[in-house]
Design brief:
The protein is of the alpha/beta class and about 230 residues long. It is about 35% helix and about 25% strand. The strands form two sheets. Strands 6-7-8-3-9-10 form a six-stranded mixed sheet, with helices on both faces. A four-stranded antiparallel sheet has the order 2-1-4-5, covered by helices on one side. Helix 3 runs parallel beside helix 5 and helix 5 runs parallel beside helix 6. It is globular, with a radius of gyration of 17 Å. The termini are far apart. The structure holds adenosine-5'-triphosphate.
């Protein structure tokens, strides 16, 4: 059975329709990368999947169960976790404390602090530093580690490489590639870097003005088709 399915999802901010009729399916170990220009609706879509944005029509199914009506914390318990845009860490707390907060509401599963540190070894030397003192790449690693500690089946990663140095992006994607190779978790990744998205994704979804412009395996499209879709050129 499909692990995660979204059917005809529409999301509104008041009178504005930010996402219109998006559908996706995803299985364990698969990666969907969402690309699209600023304002295309990517963050709204991710927040709707996490249950943070609630003004939606359509259906969200996890393991065949309709979870559309569930609040964010209930979805986390069912196995959906998000690393949000801007990371949203507690900057006065240490890395360890930021990570362990996630364990409080976690469903049972294989992730614990040692496993997060194996996946993101760059966090080991800074585990007792305040999160406010970290670099962008380190913050991103903490945010993803925190999401993993809730033992997700579906991991939502918004703006993975935004604001990170090339070396930091490399480090984060090295860890994400290892996660993907394990094959247990499905990932939905919003990625500004087109090359990175094409490289990492099993499926890409290009959004423009809230709609699907293009959706499928990266090698099913020419570079020109993808860039035209990115800029909403028909
Ligand atoms: P970015 O890359 O700039 O984050 P995005 O693709 O993630 O863009 P969204 O942030 O989802 O796009 O925004 C989609 C549309 O919804 C935009 O027109 C934006 O102005 C609008 N929007 C986003 N958040 C709100 C909000 N809280 N209230 C009203 N309108 C909003």
């Amino acid at each position: 059975m499909t692990l995660f399915a979204v059917e005809d999802l529409t999301c509104r901010h008041g009178l504005l329709t930010a996402v219109q009729g998006l559908s996706i399916t995803l299985n364990r170990g698969e990666v969907l990368c969402i690309i699209g220009a600023n304002g295309a609706g990517k963050t709204t879509f991710m927040r709707a999947l996490a249950g943070v944005h609630r003004n939606t029509d359509g259906r969200i199914l996890l393991d065949g169960t309709d979870i559309t009506g569930l609040h964010a914390f209930e979805r986390t318990r069912r196995g959906i976790a998000m690393s949000p845009e801007g990371r949203r860490l507690f900057y006065d707390l240490s890395v360890r404390e930021n990570l362990l907060i996630a364990s409080e509401n976690a469903r049972p599963g294989p992730w614990d602090l040692p496993r997060v540190l194996d996946t993101f070894p760059q966090l080991r030397p800074i585990i007792d530093l305040a999160a406010g003192n970290l670099s962008g790449g380190q913050r991103q690693a903490v945010a993803i580690g925190r999401a993993l500690l809730s033992n997700p089946d579906v991991l939502l990663l918004d703006e993975v490489s935004l604001g990170l140095s090339p070396a930091a992006v490399e480090g984060v994607y090295h860890s994400l590639a290892a996660l993907k190779a394990e094959g247990d978790i499905a990932m939905i990744v919003v990625e500004q870097d087109l090359n990175r998205a094409l490289d990492f994704a099993d499926t890409i979804l290009c959004m423009a003005e809230g709609r699907t412009e293009l959706q499928g395996a990266p090698d099913a499209f020419s570079r020109a088709q993808i860039t035209d879709a990115y800029f909403g050129i028909h």
